[in-house]
Design a protein that fits this description.
Helix content: 40-55%
Shape: elongated
Largest sheet: 2 strands, antiparallel
Radius of gyration: 29 Å
Strand content: under 5%
Number of strands: 2
Length: 128
Amino acid sequence: MKKYLELVLVSIASVGIALSAVSLVNNPENTADEELHGCSTHEITNMYAGYVEDWKKDISNAFDEAEVKIFNIKPTPDVVGPDPDPAKCICKGTGVIVQGDGHKTVCPYHGSKFGKDTIIRPLITLEE
């Protein structure tokens, strides 16, 4: 008898949860946030959309500053690419950039040391 009672209670709870989930899916504007704060999540997102990019930049700068103060290291930039300085350039001064899929391209800054007789094959060969 005790097992039947537990089964009935679990079934009632499951049905209640399922019905509340269905009502939220069918009427997404009627959420708990709207009832508490008077506006929907979508409206809140639109209100702060202009600030998000500024916040991202501020957070990134704060992490960079903390890295310098706490670890005494200069943070590396997120994007590494061609740079006039060979120490910072992705080619490391060799003049050849190895791409992620393995093909090689000439560096725009340090690739000038290659003569016209140097051929670096592209990944895709176009038909003429």
